[in-house]
Task: inverse folding
């Protein structure tokens, strides 16, 4: 690796954005290059100084109230058709984002609650019965093929070790009277069951984190798959996991 | 109750509130750094939330914050267009040369081993605000709003490689400015 390359990559290294292999390459270069090592130390120092300074602004209370007041209130009148349509004519990245073309349909709320509760039960069973994994491996290329022939979908097995979530294996489970896969991760002593199944043809929002029987659960749909991440991890760490998982998945599918 | 309810649905408004309002400070922070004006930032954030609510039905998550940032960015672009006399110009107007100037031109001017003196938040904010676009935007999204490179790339509509080089350059520029600041005690 040259200093020119390291000059860019050391930022990705300190931001925790490099995979293990590239991180090692940059670290090796830095170990043998005083100039790049000094650069990295200098940027780390600056980053810490910035983290220590309070760089965020707090939204003024008046602004918060104005926005609150502009949201539909429980008895608000329906907006005119013209207003609704205008919302769709804003030609911008917004519509591009809105039109990500994901397959989706409407799950009834009571169905969703029932399935969420089944997911938590499946998580509990996996911890109690000593049957956490059917295939034990930290290698995504071992775990992924194991699901072949056992499920009707290709499993999104993603190695998140570099991001602090260790892949420990996979398992077949049953939820809502159908086979679902689970990819099992560990962070410290906490197990995360990442359930996935083929999506029915109903639309649903990416759910916020729910707490059921003391477990945190987050469900969402993407690209024809339903996902549920469930763990005794705190809501923020589970959220971090979901974000990492999703961005890795997007990165994979976009090549 | 079906989820695809109409726009006056209180349930929908509640979901939007819970999903979007926790990010208000982050959105406002980005607006402050992008627009460098408190009043303009307030207006932009309010417009951002109005647009976000309109498009909420199309939102598929899960990362609400980058989605709001992308909307805010569009609002700011309109604001830049209005500011015909703006010294910075639209976010998109990046002189090719600015992106391509080699990093080491600036890096070499600063003694690398020299320690940075801790600065109060107001000074650091001022230094960050003085960064040129699009480096300021990338820097703020990473260092202050804590987005991943890919999230930044999605929010600003640029490849991850561009995000990486902008960030490297933003940090080099900020460090130079920081060092220069220390040489002239105020």
Result:
């Amino acid at each position: 690796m040259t200093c020119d390359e390291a000059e860019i990559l050391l930022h990705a290294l300190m931001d925790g954005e490099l995979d293990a292999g590239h991180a090692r390459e940059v670290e090796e270069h830095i170990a043998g290059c005083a100039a790049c090592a000094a650069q990295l130390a200098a940027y780390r120092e600056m980053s810490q100084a910035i983290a220590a300074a309070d760089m965020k602004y707090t939204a003024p209370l008046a602004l918060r109230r104005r926005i609150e007041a502009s949201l539909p209130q429980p008895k608000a009148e329906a907006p005119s058709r013209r207003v609704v349509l205008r919302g769709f004519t804003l030609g911008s990245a917004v519509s591009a984002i809105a039109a990500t073309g994901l397959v989706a349909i409407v799950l009834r709320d009571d169905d969703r609650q029932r399935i969420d509760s089944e997911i938590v039960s499946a998580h509990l069973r996996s911890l109690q019965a000593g049957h956490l994994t059917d295939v034990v491996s930290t290698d995504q290329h071992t775990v992924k093929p194991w699901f072949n022939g056992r499920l009707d979908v290709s499993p999104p097995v993603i190695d998140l070790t570099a991001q602090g979530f260790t892949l420990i294996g996979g398992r077949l489970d049953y939820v809502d009277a159908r086979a679902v896969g689970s990819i099992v991760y560990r962070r410290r002593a906490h197990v995360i069951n990442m359930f996935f199944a083929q999506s029915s043809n109903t639309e649903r929002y990416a759910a916020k984190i729910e707490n059921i029987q003391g477990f945190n659960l987050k469900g969402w749909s993407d690209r024809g798959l339903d996902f549920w991440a469930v763990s005794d991890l705190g809501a923020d760490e589970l959220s971090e996991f979901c974000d990492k998982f999703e961005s890795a998945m997007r990165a994979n599918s976009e090549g | 109750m079906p989820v695809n309810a109409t726009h006056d649905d209180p349930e929908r408004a509640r979901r939007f509130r819970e999903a979007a309002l926790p990010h208000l400070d982050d959105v406002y922070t980005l607006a402050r750094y992008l627009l460098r004006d408190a009043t303009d930032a307030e207006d932009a954030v309010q417009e951002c939330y109005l647009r976000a609510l309109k498009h909420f039905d199309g939102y598929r998550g899960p990362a609400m914050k980058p989605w709001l940032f992308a909307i805010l960015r569009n609002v700011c672009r309109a604001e830049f267009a209005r500011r015909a006399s703006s010294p910075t110009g639209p976010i998109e107007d990046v002189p090719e040369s600015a992106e391509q100037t080699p990093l080491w031109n600036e890096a070499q001017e600063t003694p690398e081993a020299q320690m940075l003196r801790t600065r109060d938040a107001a000074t650091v904010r001022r230094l960050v605000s003085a960064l040129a676009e699009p480096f300021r935007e990338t820097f703020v999204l990473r260092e202050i709003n804590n987005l991943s490179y890919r999230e930044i790339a999605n929010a600003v509509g640029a490849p991850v490689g561009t995000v990486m080089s902008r960030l490297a350059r933003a940090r080099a520029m900020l460090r130079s400015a920081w060092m220069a600041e220390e040489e002239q005690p105020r």
Observations:
- Chain B touches chain A through 77 residues (CB under 8 Å).
